[in-house]
């Protein structure tokens, strides 16, 4: 297996010309290719911000290392370290929604400055982080990891709630290209989860506005780049049968660590 260093992907900006200030160090992206990780890789690509990939293999428990916990105390990726933070000093940010807001403020892109428009984006961003993501995540767990027998109530509970949320989204997208009119961090936050749901079955076929929205965003070059980031790393680990039991122990059943 190739070393992590060899897998790190770094976007580099054009070297500064004489008389111009040197480019800042790239943002460190602590990441694994999941719906939450894709939010940030898509945003970085959309904003054309230089970044360096720092893989966090959640199936191997790398999210519990002391170094990562100093950045993300909830032991969840994604997280970033921006060497060029407020006042020119480094800052670390964890939680995908907070990272999207930070990058939006930093760049002035995909996060409106107008307060009314920003409130609308925040509403749908928090709708995703508090609803679509958690519900679809639980539905995915009971679809893919738990035995159906004996877990029928949980299976239906999360599957139906995900279905309800897609209906809410479908209504919001009626007559709109994007959730709040213009493409924003709210759309980036939702897209990866809808892409994951699309792999389950034909449920998405019931929501034509969501399907059209999904295709519209998938056609963006930055989406394709962000969606593909680190895919080979996950495939290496996922395709190893010996790692399956280890992965389950790491991902599920965790309790507080003192």
Give a structural overview.
The chain is an alpha+beta fold and 258 residues long. The protein contains 11 helices and 4 strands, in the order αβαβαββαααααααα. It has a 4-stranded mixed sheet with strand order 2-1-3-4, with helices on one face. The protein is globular, with a radius of gyration of 19 Å.
Short description:
The protein has 258 residues and is of the alpha+beta class. Helix content is 52%, strand content 7%. It folds into 2 domains: 4-109 and 242-251, Glutaredoxin (3-Layer(aba) Sandwich); 115-219, Glutathione S-transferase Yfyf (Class Pi), Chain A, domain 2 (Up-down Bundle).
Architecture of the largest domain, CATH level 2? 3-Layer(aba) Sandwich
Largest sheet: 4 strands, mixed
SSE-based structural type: alpha+beta
Kindly give the count of domains.
2
Q: What's the CATH class label of the largest domain? A: Alpha Beta
- The helix tally amounts to 11
Could you spell the SSE succession in H and E letters? HEHEHEEHHHHHHHH
How are strands sequenced across the largest beta sheet? 2-1-3-4
Helical proportion? 40-55%
Q: What is the assembly state of the chains in this entry?
A: single chain
What is the mean predicted local confidence, pLDDT? 88
Measured distance between first and last alpha carbons? 34 Å
User: Low-confidence stretches at least 5 residues in length (pLDDT < 50)?
Assistant: 1-16
The best one-word shape is globular
Number of strands: 4
Radius of gyration: 19 Å
